[in-house]
Amino acid sequence: MQTNNVTIHDIAAALKIDSSTVSRALNNSPRVTQKTKQRIWAKAQEMGYQRNVLASNLRKNKTNTIGVIIPRISRFFFSSAIEGIEETAFENGYNVIMCQSLEKLERETNLVQTLVANRVDGIILSISMETLDYEHMELARKNGIPTVFFDRHCDIPGNNNVLLNDYQGSFDATDHLVSQGCRNIAHLAGPRDLKLYQNRFNGYKEALEKNGLPFQPDLVIDSNLMEEDGANAAQKILETLPQVDGIFSANDVAAVGAMQFLKGKNIKIPDEIAIVGFSNGPTSSVIDPALTTVDQSGKKMGRLATELLIKQINAKPIPLAPETIILEPTLIQRDSTQKKPTIHPNT
Amino acid sequence: MQTNNVTIHDIAAALKIDSSTVSRALNNSPRVTQKTKQRIWAKAQEMGYQRNVLASNLRKNKTNTIGVIIPRISRFFFSSAIEGIEETAFENGYNVIMCQSLEKLERETNLVQTLVANRVDGIILSISMETLDYEHMELARKNGIPTVFFDRHCDIPGNNNVLLNDYQGSFDATDHLVSQGCRNIAHLAGPRDLKLYQNRFNGYKEALEKNGLPFQPDLVIDSNLMEEDGANAAQKILETLPQVDGIFSANDVAAVGAMQFLKGKNIKIPDEIAIVGFSNGPTSSVIDPALTTVDQSGKKMGRLATELLIKQINAKPIPLAPETIILEPTLIQRDSTQKKPTIHPNT
DNA sequence: GAAAATAATACAATCGATTGTATTTTATTT
DNA sequence: AAATAAAATACAATCGATTGTATTATTTTC
């Protein structure tokens, strides 16, 4: 194994001083006189010294690394969250180890182990759809590694969370549909095992009730909210639920799938059926008509999660009281819900 | 600093054996008898032992970590590339450290330093728009860290690359526009400093020539290919280049921007102006009419880049001959270029 | 059953930086 | 100039696992 790397010992030998002095000089410790520092810095430069972070980390028992586990990077929401995470981490001198659970609990468990073994200073996590118990997080807790959940969280107490007020977002979305005149609003729901989708469902339901509309269980269509699921849901609606005049989808992807299907069947959006999505993903503003949606501000969540995590890391070994940050969502109104005021035809 | 962590020495002491035997047992070395292994494994489990990967890495001078530097995670192409990188890395027991250059050379330089200091086993890189010289890559080379460029590469010899045949993709795209009857095809070009955009430009130009069409420099509109740039280009075309009947954009984002603008001006796509993009991003299939585009297969590139990198890592210390993998692009034909066969009106 | 061969385990150095303590050097005071 | 204080540097242990070599225990061979 080639190790042509320069160490502090090499520098020390070259200058006939002790390696501890070299170490202190390189860390700009006040215990080394300026003159000596200059010599050491010059020599280090000359010899092409590069600190071995592994050795440093081992000794200091700190890696300046944050581990991130998310279901899937290529989803827009997650990639924008990571963007925020990476930027904040970089600003604070942390590296980011990126992992995907691919919605599998087994992989997630595996990854937590790897991150713990790698002694990351903290973990940011958005759980997989399969994650119903949280035993695997015990490992991080036992090893004193602070953890922050974002978006897809779990409801065990004592956690740090950065969340969107999904309930409110859905409430607003549904309320908006009602205000546009919709009376039979279908809901494309995600797996209710996830708190997040449960909250979106609740927001939908309670917005109906608050507006004096009946909650109709058969208007709730469950799926994993893929594009195809949206299309299937739309088909089901056309074939068996003719009364539906509005759709609130728990994500944009399914909403787009539904829209594409409806457009293919020449259904007028929003006039016959109005649609609202959730996420404000890149497709929502591009589709025609543009999709009304709830902004999920992934980058901001990533930023906040990282800031919270670093706060917890710095507080070690006495952990701060766990904190939950809840972002208020914004409804982005676009054409998929702007029903034209009803005008009598032929006048 | 709390270090309530169990080490191999603790296990050794508990069993009154030597730590080296424990280490070998945990690594399932044949030098330890099965019976002893069993005892050690049981004790390790019982004491909640977790290998300290830092120490192991330091000793072995290997981190099982790959560093990735890309311009921006939230771009669809890059996030899908990372998806492929992470999956392949995971399968091979590697972790991935993720970094964004945010299109800044300074940050990129900084990140290479960090990765080298962290002794990553290899680096996967897609350079920033500012990266015109490659001195910062010397550091990786000098430290014997294998590197693979993907998509945005540089043309210094001796590099490993995983690239798309951008020339061919653009050629096919332009050729397709010609075959649809376009005779004055504008090109939304990216920064020509990047080899990749130069290749796309060349493909465009040569496809024209091959079809006996004149190359008209004023039909090339340079920009950074943001959505707004696409819109501006479209405006310029409407105002000053009325002869244009087709647009080949060097990416989807600008193509979408242009389309939105043209649609706003009631220009018929593809009949008045046909459009082709590049990337096959998520918006291309959603926009109306759906955008014809060149598939960039980010995930596949990520996979291949990682496989190539791991091959190079395993070949150490004698590096394999550098390899360049070029993927052939696929033109995805959609409605933005399907001109209806010309039929005389009113017949 | 002694000698040789093999298996199993112990010893000790090492990876490279950090850090508490000890020692030497320099500066200050009387 | 001696005594004290303060500054600068050296010594040595340490982080936790790995690994070449040495030693002890066991098995095989004649």
Please give the structural blueprint:
The structure is a homodimer of 347-residue chains.
Chain A: H1 8-15, H2 19-26, H3 34-47, H4 53-60, E1 65-70, H5 76-91, E2 95-100, H6 105-117, E3 122-125, H7 135-142, E4 147-150, E5 160-164, H8 166-179, E6 185-189, H9 195-210, E7 220-222, H10 227-240, E8 246-249, H11 252-264, E9 274-276, E10 293-295, H12 298-315, E11 324-327, E12 330-332
Parallel strand pairs in A: 1-2, 1-3, 3-4, 4-5, 5-11, 6-7, 6-8, 8-9
Antiparallel strand pairs in A: 10-12
Helix pairs in contact in A: 1-2, 1-3, 5-12, 6-7, 8-9, 10-11
Chain A binds a DNA duplex (30 and 30 nucleotides) through residues 3, 5, 7-9, 17-24, 26-27, 31-33, 36, 51-61.
InterPro entries (chains A, B): HTH_LacI, Lambda_DNA-bd_dom_sf, Peripla_BP/Lac1_sug-bd_dom, Peripla_BP_I
Keywords (chains A, B): DNA-binding, Transcription, Transcription regulation
Protein name (chains A, B): LacI family transcriptional regulator
Could you explain the architecture of this structure?
The structure is a homodimer of 347-residue chains. Chain A has helices spanning 8-15, 19-26, 34-47, 53-60, 76-91, 105-117, 135-142, 166-179, 195-210, 227-240, 252-264, 298-315, and strands at 65-70, 95-100, 122-125, 147-150, 160-164, 185-189, 220-222, 246-249, 274-276, 293-295, 324-327, 330-332. By secondary structure, chain A is α/β, with parallel strands linked by helices. Chain A folds into three domains: 8-51, 434 Repressor (Amino-terminal Domain), CATH 1.10.260; 63-164 and 298-328, Rossmann fold (3-Layer(aba) Sandwich); 166-295 and 332-337, Rossmann fold. Chain A has a six-stranded parallel beta sheet, sandwiched between helices. The first copy, chain A, has a four-stranded parallel beta sheet with strand order 7-6-8-9, sandwiched between helices. In chain A, strands 10-12 form a two-stranded antiparallel ribbon. The longest helix of chain A is centred in the C-terminal third of the chain and has 18 residues, at 298-315. Chain A binds a DNA duplex (30 and 30 nucleotides) through α2 and α4.
